Amino acid sequence: MREEKRAMQTTPEMHLEHEQATPSSWLDRSWFTIQTLDWAWVIFGVLMVAVVLTRFWDLGTRALHHDESLHAVFSWYLYIGNGYQHDPLMHGPFLFHFTALIFWLFGDSDFTVRVGPALFGVAIAAAPWLFMRDWLGRRGALAAVALTLISPTILYYSRFIRHDIFALGWTVLIVYAVFKYLETGRERYFLLIAVGMAFFYSTKENAYIFSALLWPFLLLIVAFQWSRARALRESRAWHIVVTMAALLLPFTTALVVEVVFGNWFGLGWDALDYSPAGITRSLLFFGVLWLIGAGVAAVLFDIRRFLTFAALFYAIFLLLHTTFLTNPFGVVTGFVGALGYWLDQHDVQRGGQPWYYYLLLLWLYEYMALAIGLFAGTWLMFWKRPQGKPLDEHAQIRVQGVFPIFLLWWLVTSFIAYSIAGEKMPWLSVHMSLPAIWLAAWTIGHFLDEVEWSAIRAEGVWFALAFLVATLAAMTLLYWGLRSEWPLQGTTREALTVTMGWLAALLILGITGWLAWRLWRQIGDKTAGDAVMLVLLVVLAASTWRYAWLASFVHGDIPREMLIYTQTAPDVTMVTEDLKALSQRLTGGLDMVVAYDSGASWPFEWYLRNFPNKRFFGESPGPDLANADVVLIGETSLYSEREQRARPFIPNYIRHEYKLRWWFPEEYKDLMLTVQEVPDPNDPSRTVMQALGERDANIFHVVANAFRYARRADYRRDFLDFLIWRKLKQPLGSTNFAMYVRPDLVKEIWRYGNIAAAKDPTLIQDEYDEKMVTLSATRVVGAFGVAEGQLNTPRAVAFAPDGRLVVADSGNHRIQVFNADGSFAFSFGTMGSAPGQFNEPWGVAVDAEGNIYVADTWNHRIQKFDAEGNFITAWGTFADTQGQLTQPGVFWGPRGIAIGPDHRLYVADTGNKRIQVFELDGAFAGMFGGAGNGPGQLNEPTDVAVASDGTIYVADTWNQRVQAFSPTYAFLREWRVRGWESQSIVNKPFIETDGARVWISDPEGYRVIEFDTAGAVQRVWGTFGTSTDAFALPLGLAYQDGVLAVVDSDNHRVLLFNVGE
Predict the structure, then answer these.
(1) What is the average pLDDT score of the chain?
(2) What is the CATH number of the domain that holds 909?
(3) Same-domain status, 499 and 604
């Protein structure tokens, strides 16, 4: 202890502090005469309070991700005494033991399951100041804490129960122990390396990757020492190199068994062969390699020290992998199976990400750390900063000089390694983000050390403010320029807004730029340069924090961030609370019987953990399913094989569909597409990009595509909208789950009661029940399939003047035309975005001349074809108007369309909460609606119908009403719809009128409702089923000459009903 104190007292920083009579920095000023307050520790304390708050605040609100639920459930099993058995599929055992301990201390919940990652996130943030001040510098260490605080990647995954944040924590411990041993040579740091490695190898298999990066760097240090001092065995780096090689050599058993003998020698051996012969073979190889490693350590190092190191490593490793000696099989899965399984997974390439994935992801979120660390840090390290002697008087490497070089090595080599690895996932980015952060912090620290703070305070403040405002004005002009939004381009509201913005920004830039230039001349280059750098640091830090906040607290359960990738939808926790409430009302506890299949098991295995009567039926439903109160079927649609197997056992149950999980649209993969520019059908003087459908990952092809897209203003606008506002051009991908509730229980859940009323006469009745009739279709058109005349989840239908039926065959991304007798006539369209191609069309209409109009929903446009399906024109692009009546002619997911007696096309611009009106050539004619629930306002309008007198009827879905408007778009009246409760992605009702009657579809109520034009119910028909008087998701409607056509989407057909004139 005394030696440590003397060592600390002789450090240069402590020497200066004792030598100088006046504090050299405000970080060391005396606050009281009796006590000296170290302001650096105060700043550290404030930063750590912020770290703790951001890691723990609102930790349990977000639904557990699929993988999180796996980790939570198996930790919970261990916590309640059901044990744990290591399985390489779910990586190492540490997470499960540590989470079980958290449950034991604080109970099990969505909050406590993430306490472990949050604690490690706090520790990672604190480590630079607590342990690495000598290598990063005091200001650099504080900068490291601050950058870790605002890091989007580390913040998000510190609030996420995955292995990577734990692995990153052990990486920090190993780095500290290695460099502390290199600096001091003390045995405790040597053994601390063993502790860190044992926990790392018990956490996740990327321990192999980090070891493969660290070992060559240490070997380079050894080579450098040898070139200068010819002292090999005395080199501390050599001690670690030999020990790591000897210790980890037997861990290559899987590589030797599977790759060398299994593949190269053609013996077909598999490292995951857990038969007695396979286990014996693997353990034999492990033992031989261990003896070789021990022999190497004995010859090249010190066998006693190696054995001590190995004993400490194996004690931790074996205790965790065998769950404290209760699972002997963990010896095999830990030593051999872990690497063996992930060698097999390399070729699987889960996620299918391109080689440039981390280039996009890291620069999207960690641009501050990368820019400062890679560029400024490298320049400072090799060209600006004097290095001094690399070796000390004992021929040992000087850690302060080599540590930033290691950070650069760590960053570059980890980026290369993870980019080569088959599986590329956003959570792995933390392993590249941390070295970038530390390298940037080291650079910032050296810059701050050279700032003349007195000059900044005295002269530089006003310059800094002027430069900041000028910078923001210049960034505004750059933003508009990149979007190709130039001034003086017209007199529309949007054009005038841009012009005024340009003039204001130019004026501000001119004034503040001139002021900054004058002040620069007064204060000199040094002070002005320091102020410029400080302003840039503030701007970068503020923007980085914004993206961290968005990812973790705004979009945490909505995958609008590339960082999130995929996420369980909020519907899951909402349904869970409903189930708990229903069970409490029925049983006084959680004893209700809930059955679920393999598609819904994750995350519901976690959310139903306290339901003692839950039943898992996997892929094999049976008669006992009818005894369940609620049945959950995941990754499904109504006509899916999963539900078809289960529905015979629950025929009268009430079905509702919800989002199970959703994911980020991976448009960045389009950089690999082969594309060509073709004339824009709306404007031949312009071109649009057409994908040919072929992918090429060649770097030159990808770079050429990137430049090709960058030249186009529309793509630049889309990119900027995402970069700044996180607006997505494409909708989120998703998969759903269905909840089936026993009919007699539906009245217990208020939100479903109205739907069930017609199915259970014991429930409360309403006016719809009194009007219920049985009406059978007179004709059925279509059946499931992809051949001509077959349909796949059709969405909309329209009658042509000659009686032909035009169907939006959405699942097949085409339009099909049937003759009046129901026979197939022709079809046109394929999946794509070129003219004449479709991406899930949801609307169709036919004019008096037979021209066909299609709402090409997820291409965000309207396309017009002649009566034979030949392309004529198209109009529309994607834009999110935020529910405002702006930007005419753009769409967000247009759905229902109709042609009025005024020969205009009416379009339900669903996502933008409005109806747009166009001339039949695509010229804009008007719009009405706008987001809201007041008269005339709309919320998710999904369809529009126009009567012969010009009255416009709108299906105002999420407001659960029909609204009527005059031909001049003035609000006339409204009536409520007892239905349309769900906001699921398929609950998109349609509306139709013959001038005297109004029909609506109720998709998840499996019925059609007929009103008079005042909103009085006339009749209701339909139930769930496949007969001609039943529906499975009724959607589009079309009327002609006494016949109402109804799209029965999930039965993949169109039903024609005789409803009279």
Answers:
(1) 89
(2) 2.120.10.30
(3) no
Question: The tokens of 764 are what?
Answer: 């409360």
Nearest Cα to Cα of residue 366 among 570, 558, 151: 151
User: Which residues fall within 8 angstroms of residue 333, CB to CB, at 6 or more apart?
Assistant: 86, 87, 88, 321
**Angle formed by the axes of helices 303-321 and 187-201, nearest 10°:** 30
Q: What is the pTM of this model?
A: 0.75
Q: Which of 644-653, 690-699, 881-890 has the highest mean pLDDT?
A: 881-890
Q: What is the pLDDT of residues 408-447, one digit of tens each?
A: 999 999 999 999 988 899 999 999 999 999 999 999 999 9
3-state secondary structure of 225: helix
Q: Mind listing the pLDDT tens digit for each residue in 167-219?
A: 999 999 999 999 999 999 999 999 999 999 999 999 999 999 999 999 999 99
Can you read off the two tokens belonging to residue 979? 């239905």
Domain boundary among 512, 546, 580: 546
SS percent in the chain: helix, strand, coil, step 5: 50, 20, 30
Count of Cβ atoms closer than 10 Å to residue 423 Cβ = 15
- Residues 890 and 922 placed together within one structural domain of the fold: yes
Comparing 1059 with 761, which gets the higher pLDDT? Answer: 1059
Residue 659: which domain range? 569-664+734-752
On whether both 839 and 925 belong to a single domain, the answer is yes
Give the residue, 701 or 127, on which the prediction is more confident.
127
Q: Are residue 742 and residue 824 in the same domain, yes or no?
A: no
The answer to whether residues 662 and 567 touch, using CB atoms and an 8 Å cutoff, is yes
Report whether pLDDT(4) > 70.
no
Where residue 836 falls (left for φ over 0; alpha for ψ -120 to 50; beta otherwise) is left
What is the Cα 541 distance to its own chain's centre? Answer: 23
At a CB cut-off of 8 Å and minimum separation 6, what does 19 contact? none
- Residue 690: pLDDT over 60: yes
Q: Is residue 897 located within the same domain as residue 991?
A: yes
Give the pairing of strands 594-597 and 615-618: parallel
Burial 534-566 (b: 16+ CB within 10 A, else e): bbbbeebbeebbebbebbbbebbbbbbbbbbbb
Task: Label residue 492 by pLDDT band (50, 70, 90).
Answer: confident
Q: Looking at the domain assignment, is residue 13 inside a domain?
A: no
Q: Residue 965 gets which letter from DSSP?
A: E
Residue 499 and residue 593 share a domain:
no
Q: Is residue 233 part of a domain?
A: no
- C-alpha torsion angle, residues 138, 379, 372, 409 (rounded to 10): -80
Q: For the chain, how many structural domains are there in total?
A: 3
In a domain, 950, yes or no: yes
511 & 610 share domain: no
Is residue 855 assigned to a domain? yes
816 compared with 378, residue with greater pLDDT: 816
Q: Which of 438, 432, 440, 436 is nearest to 376 (CA)?
A: 440
Q: Cα separations (Å) of 423 from 36, 344, 353, 732?
A: 52, 11, 8, 22
Predicted pLDDT of residue 682: 56
Residues 645, 521, single domain; the answer is no
Instruction: Tell me the backbone φ, ψ of residue 895, rounded to 5 degrees.
Output: -125, -105
Those residues with Cβ within 8 angstroms of residue 934's Cβ, 6 or more apart along the chain or in another chain: none
- Domain end: 485, 513, 546, which one? 546
pLDDT in tens, 838-849: 999 999 999 999
- Residue 386, phi then psi, degrees to nearest 5: -65, 135
The larger pLDDT score, comparing residue 708 to residue 141, is at: 141
